[in-house]
What does this fold into?
Amino acid sequence: MNEGKVNTALDWLRMAKEKFRSFAYGDEQKERPRVGLALAGGFARGIAHIGVIRVLQQAGIPVDCVAGTSVGALIGVAYCAGTTCEEMQTAGQTTTFADFGRWTPSWLGLATNQRMEKYLARLTAAKTFEELKTPLAISTSDINEGVTVYYTSGAIAQPLRASCAYPGMFVPIQYDGRILVDGFLTAPVPVEGTLLLGADVVIAVYLEAGSSGQPRTMAEVISRSFNIVQKHADIAWRQQADVIIEPDVHPFAWDDFSKTPELVRAGEEAAMKALPEIRAMLGGEKKDSAA
It folds into this structure.
């Protein structure tokens, strides 16, 4: 789907949503906009999401729904289930690649991420979307059709594993009659997922990876290659987001969970800078469409 078609579809979705509200509520006005939080992927760098969430909570910014891609989906599940930022940060500090993946080289990937199901159980006992306290959409990519597939109901484990199945690294997930891989391929920042859940104001959190020095492993070569593609294909979600938070995660390696405190701090600092803009949006001020 080209950029023009994506924008047209999302604009139509927004207009349809507004018309539905007008029909449902008549002249009644909602007390405040419905806030959606879109969390990007980034593996260990995704720990910065915890810092963003903490600042939003401390500032009293409501979050009515969440959409997550890859590690953003994992953080999203934990948050929507009621796991505290302190609990997520503690888990992050002791996390290693072995908690998610087991090396089993095959024609479809270098590892399986089946262990993610046990890791998720450390964060929450919730097994279905219906058990979550806050509505959540998990983005995945159908590798055959080349489209985003969002999951908002039913079992969590398989959609989450699919959303985190980084191409080349992890074996794709066969689920729901589809072959699914990492959601970042088609929805690097799943703004559309929050719109599907009825968000009026979308706060997007993007984690741009650094690329200094020589790549150390095949995984880094693959990662940097996809990052280059993303830099040239991020217009649609940026146009649909109302506020974009971009923590400075460039200094951190994709798998360096030992830097959890620093990553959380990076998320906190970026969110603090965005608070005035967020408060302005919730206060009814409109963002300049030319920005």
Summary: Confidence is low (pLDDT under 50) at residues 1-7, 19-29, 285-291.
